[in-house]
Amino acid sequence: MGWNRRGTGAWGKPDTVLQGAYPLRSAPNNRGRMANLMKKQVSLLLAALLLLGVMGGCTQSAPPPTATPTPAQESPSAPPATEIALSKAYIIVQGYEWGPAIPKIVLEFAEDVSGFASDTFEVAFGSTKRTVKDVYSSDEDGNKAEGAGKHLTIEMAVKSSEASPFAYNMEKNVNTWAEQVDFTVTVASGKSFSVGGTAYQGGDMCSYSATAADRKVPQTASWVKDTVEYHEEGKDITLTRAAWAPEGADSDSGKNPLIIWLHGMGEGGTDIDIDLLGNEVTALTTENETNVQKYFATDGLAGAYVLAVQTPTMWMDIDGNSTFNNENLTLPAKQESWYTGALWHAITSYVEGNPDVDTSRIYVGGCSNGGYMTMNMMFEHGGYFAAFYPICEAYLNDCVSDEMIQQVKDYNIWFVQSADDGTVNPAEYGLPTYVRLLEAGALDVSYAPVAMKKNRPGVLLTCLCRPGDSDRLAREMLRHTSTFGVRRTDCPRYAMSVSSEEVETVYGPVPRKTGTGYGLVKSKPEYADLAAIAREKGVSLAEVRRAYEGAR
What pLDDT is recorded for position 317? Predict the structure, then answer.
């Protein structure tokens, strides 16, 4: 079993996912040989019994006559299973919200394949039976082909718990490729197909152990992959990169934005495909149905470039030896990374080498460890980027000084996190930092996809601000988006009269706000206050909330 610690898709719920690689011990198919051997043994046994009966007749009186089954009355034996003559096989790997899976296998034969249908085969990965969706002639990459050929693709439904090509290295805390992925293909009962002049019937089967040489990842084939070296600060660091470009970007109407992705802890290493598939970075491109490129392919632009950078260990490494930088800290102190300088070099060298990047529209984000590194880059080089999207970020709030909050409070930041995240506790990381940013003067901003004129996809960006800030923020929206206009609406505000008081609980006083007006009275505690008490008392947020509900 292997588990993907953060195989979340770039935009899905950031949760721990169990994934398994289920090996099947592969061996030559001996079913036909064993069936023949058993038939010989049964024949010998019958002969021995018959001989004993004859010998018994020499010394005893003959028994009363009984009906003896004749060979014609015996049930015929099922024909022995035949091993399907398979020349080679490939597994097709694709990234999903929970991580990678195998939606297709491609079987290669010595002769043309014919006579099959979508229900001809049954497929099992180890003990897990897969659901077959379709079967068709193809090339060796699994693309449909017209007419009969030597390649046959079996397309299967995918689930987060089925047949992952990843295994989790518990010692290094990273995902790796499974050494082999074993599967069995069986002709379904009552079905048949042919390879050249050889016909195969129900029960015939073949087993295959797919290794790295049999693995195809078409989603990442169009990415340009390289490494970048960093030899400063007394360090010798090599980072792995992968860059994707929208088709026609070099000949469209202008310079294109850049989206940067920083992976989670489980995707560290030297194989960038682990990063691209483990976090479904492919969703940021047009290689995936859930891509976001449609939001950038506007005003004659081809879309946005995508850059993924991989560290050999993890972004939260303090010394290059996989030592977490959020442990044994003497506060106040920054939560520093061994790779800050190397990552900055990897990003800036890519931008300098691609003159088509719009340097006013560079966006950086990532999940968990990568969310931490997003915050780190914001604190260290914030003015370089147009916006930040930290997902379940792991930069300790206690390491963020008031000066750092003031430094970044006017940046465009989109925090994303599950309220019940069991790995990165929101109350210790993103949530209090978010609250402090609001308290420092940042206002709420919302972002939603909409259908525009002619049903074209677009984005509605709404900024709630003070009247005196409207001109400055309108200029920022015109600068950082493709829109030619910003609408301003002055909204009257209906507000209840708010008073504050404290409710005594077993964990001490809990502040409560009460609103009155328009014939209504309602009250509630602030989430930040409950979270602060939970941290101070070392209990869960739910326990503090229950204590509050019981006391009021």
Answer: 96
Angle at 242 between CA 237 and CA 246, to 5 degrees: 150
| Type of residue found at 516 | T
Q: Could you tell me whether strands 205-210 and 128-130 are parallel, antiparallel, or unpaired per DSSP bridges?
A: unpaired
- CB-hemisphere CA count at 13 Å for 9? 18
User: Is 159 in contact with 97 (CB distance < 8 Å)?
Assistant: no
pLDDT at 39 over 50: no
Q: Which two tokens stand for residue 241?
A: 């990169």
CB atoms within 10 A of CB 44: 10
State residue 253 phi and psi, 5-degree precision: -80, -10
Q: Is 188 helix (H, G, I), strand (E, B) or coil?
A: coil
Does this model's pTM top 0.90? My answer is no
Environment class of 532 (CB within 10 Å of its CB; exposed 0-12, middle 13-18, buried 19+)? middle
And the tokens for 102? 């195998």
- Sheet with 224-230: list strands edge to edge: 224-230, 237-244, 305-310, 256-262, 357-367, 387-391
**Token pair of 411 as six digits:** 């940046």
Out of 35-49, 277-291, 375-389, 412-426, least confident range:
35-49
Q: Which helix (H) or strand (E) holds 404?
A: helix 402-408
Report cis status (omega within 30 of 0) of the bond before 14.
Answer: no
Q: Are 296 and 303 contacting, i.e. CB atoms less than 8 angstroms apart?
A: yes
The mean-pLDDT minimum among 76-85, 174-183, 389-398, 542-551 falls in: 76-85
The three-state secondary structure class of 360 is: strand
Handedness of CA 308, 311, 316, 318 (dihedral sign): negative
Q: Which contacts of 358-363 are long-range, i.e. CB under 8 A and separated by 24 or more positions?
A: 358/254, 358/255, 358/256, 358/257, 358/258, 360/386, 360/479, 360/480, 361/257, 361/258, 361/304, 361/386, 361/480, 362/257, 362/258, 362/260, 362/386, 363/257, 363/258, 363/259, 363/260, 363/387, 363/388, 363/389
Residue-level pLDDT at 467: 84
Helix (H, G, I), strand (E, B) or coil at 267: helix
- Cβ atoms of residues 185 and 205 within 8 Å: yes
Q: Which domains does the chain have, with CATH numbers?
A: 2-27+81-216 (2.60.40.2180), 220-442 (3.40.50.1820), 447-491 (no CATH), 497-551 (no CATH)
For the residues 391-411, what does the mean pLDDT come to?
91
Give 26 or 92, the one with higher predicted confidence. Answer: 92
Pairwise CA distance, residues 397 & 335, whole Å: 10
Nearest to 165 by CA among 85, 10, 271: 271
Can you tell me the distance from the alpha carbon of 208 to that of 286, in angstroms, rounded to the nearest whole number? Answer: 32
Best CA proximity match to 207, nearest among 179, 181, 185:
185
How confident is the model over 452-500, as pLDDT tens digits?
Answer: 655 565 656 777 777 888 888 888 778 766 678 888 888 777 888 999 9
> Under 8 Å CB-to-CB from 193, ≥6 apart: which residues?
113, 114, 115, 116, 120, 187, 199, 200
